Description:
Elements: H1 14-61, H2 66-82, H3 86-106
Amino acid sequence: MTSPPPDAGVYISPAQTHAEVRRIADGQIRMEEKLDRLLDDQREHRETIADHETRLRTQERTALTEADVSGLRTDVEALKRNRWPMATIGVLGGLAGTVVAVVALFRP
């Protein structure tokens, strides 16, 4: 091959052209791989969102009504009225201990 004349302008050899095309092709492959990963991530996000939507719809269908809440409040109030407070149990235990001590003191 002969070298181009000095006043011919810019000369790009076929090897340089091939190297540049190869570099552009490699960049395009990397971009395609990144886009594929983004699309996979987006698909996963869509599936997650659909799952959350399904769960929310299920919760909304099985949510407690006002009557259910009112019934639960009534049950809780009944339980509160019927419980033995710890202070009362403590006083009864103390009185029983005192009675046993007095009986043991006067018993021969």
